[in-house]
Amino acid sequence: MKKHLLIAACMGLLSWGAVAESLDAPAPDGRRLGGTIAQELQAEEMPKVENKDLKRERNYPEQPPTIPHKIDGYRVDTNSNKCLSCHSRSTAAKSQAPMISITHYMDRDGQPLATVSPRRYFCEQCHVPQHETPAAIPNTFKNIDQVLEGGASQP
Ligand code: HEC
Ligand code: HEC
């Protein structure tokens, strides 16, 4: 009896394999080209983080600046915040990192607090490092100066 059940189960699996194969289809050519839906392609190598320590231009006045250094292993949780060990008001002089601006100390009513506001505590919500890689998809983004230039040239 047990043997029969086992054989039936095996046959079931085999026929499911055949169905899965017949249902396979070319994958949508998104950011990773080629392959089929069922096929597992090798992932591309991860690009390196740009680590030049040079501030990048901001595209508009309220843009959170991108991070110009590596942040591997920098922990930010309820117990500790590695970023603040260099960027807070009290540590910036020692680390010579730019101090977080006054907006990071303001509560939602614009009242400055003595310590970093909870809404600005998780830095990577707004600030991100950049990778040494070409843009994944082409885009026509214009920064605010280019937008203003375009506007001025129109009648
Ligand atoms: C060891 C000290 C140190 C730590 C830790 C550190 N930074 Fe920095 N950061 C710097 C220094 C110094 C600069 C100035 C540019 C440079 O030297 O890279 C900088 C620059 C920046 C800038 C650019 C500011 C601008 O005006 O363009 C941002 C944003 C930033 N850091 C965010 C972060 C975040 C977010 C973390 C945590 C994930 C972090 N940093 C952790 C030292 C540090
Ligand atoms: C809710 C979004 C947000 C969060 C969270 C946030 N920032 Fe910012 N940050 C900004 C914006 C927007 C600016 C630019 C305008 C300003 O200064 O408010 C900025 C500016 C900065 C600057 C440049 C300051 C200057 O005077 O040029 C540094 C450095 C920085 N942030 C670091 C941090 C660190 C470290 C944390 C985590 C403790 C953090 N930020 C959390 C949005 C954020």
TrEMBL record:
<keyword id="KW-0479">Metal-binding</keyword>
<comment type="similarity">
    <text>Belongs to the NapB family.</text>
</comment>
<feature type="region of interest" description="Disordered">
    <location>
        <begin position="48"/>
        <end position="74"/>
    </location>
</feature>
<keyword id="KW-0408">Iron</keyword>
<feature type="binding site" description="axial binding residue">
    <location>
        <position position="69"/>
    </location>
    <ligand>
        <name>heme c 1</name>
    </ligand>
</feature>
<dbReference type="GO" id="GO:0046872">
    <property type="term" value="F:metal ion binding"/>
</dbReference>
<feature type="binding site" description="axial binding residue">
    <location>
        <position position="127"/>
    </location>
    <ligand>
        <name>heme c 2</name>
    </ligand>
</feature>
<keyword id="KW-0732">Signal</keyword>
<feature type="binding site" description="axial binding residue">
    <location>
        <position position="87"/>
    </location>
    <ligand>
        <name>heme c 1</name>
    </ligand>
</feature>
<dbReference type="Pfam" id="PF03892">
    <property type="entry name" value="NapB"/>
</dbReference>
<keyword id="KW-0349">Heme</keyword>
<keyword id="KW-0249">Electron transport</keyword>
<feature type="signal peptide">
    <location>
        <begin position="1"/>
        <end position="20"/>
    </location>
</feature>
<feature type="binding site" description="covalent">
    <location>
        <position position="83"/>
    </location>
    <ligand>
        <name>heme c 1</name>
    </ligand>
</feature>
<keyword id="KW-0574">Periplasm</keyword>
<feature type="binding site" description="axial binding residue">
    <location>
        <position position="104"/>
    </location>
    <ligand>
        <name>heme c 2</name>
    </ligand>
</feature>
<protein>
    <recommendedName>
        <fullName>Periplasmic nitrate reductase, electron transfer subunit</fullName>
    </recommendedName>
</protein>
<feature type="binding site" description="covalent">
    <location>
        <position position="126"/>
    </location>
    <ligand>
        <name>heme c 2</name>
    </ligand>
</feature>
<dbReference type="GO" id="GO:0042597">
    <property type="term" value="C:periplasmic space"/>
</dbReference>
<feature type="binding site" description="covalent">
    <location>
        <position position="86"/>
    </location>
    <ligand>
        <name>heme c 1</name>
    </ligand>
</feature>
<dbReference type="GO" id="GO:0009061">
    <property type="term" value="P:anaerobic respiration"/>
</dbReference>
<dbReference type="InterPro" id="IPR005591">
    <property type="entry name" value="NapB"/>
</dbReference>
<comment type="function">
    <text>Electron transfer subunit of the periplasmic nitrate reductase complex NapAB. Receives electrons from the membrane-anchored tetraheme c-type NapC protein and transfers these to NapA subunit, thus allowing electron flow between membrane and periplasm. Essential for periplasmic nitrate reduction with nitrate as the terminal electron acceptor.</text>
</comment>
<feature type="binding site" description="covalent">
    <location>
        <position position="123"/>
    </location>
    <ligand>
        <name>heme c 2</name>
    </ligand>
</feature>
<dbReference type="InterPro" id="IPR036280">
    <property type="entry name" value="Multihaem_cyt_sf"/>
</dbReference>
<feature type="compositionally biased region" description="Basic and acidic residues">
    <location>
        <begin position="48"/>
        <end position="60"/>
    </location>
</feature>
<comment type="subunit">
    <text>Component of the periplasmic nitrate reductase NapAB complex composed of NapA and NapB.</text>
</comment>
<keyword id="KW-0813">Transport</keyword>
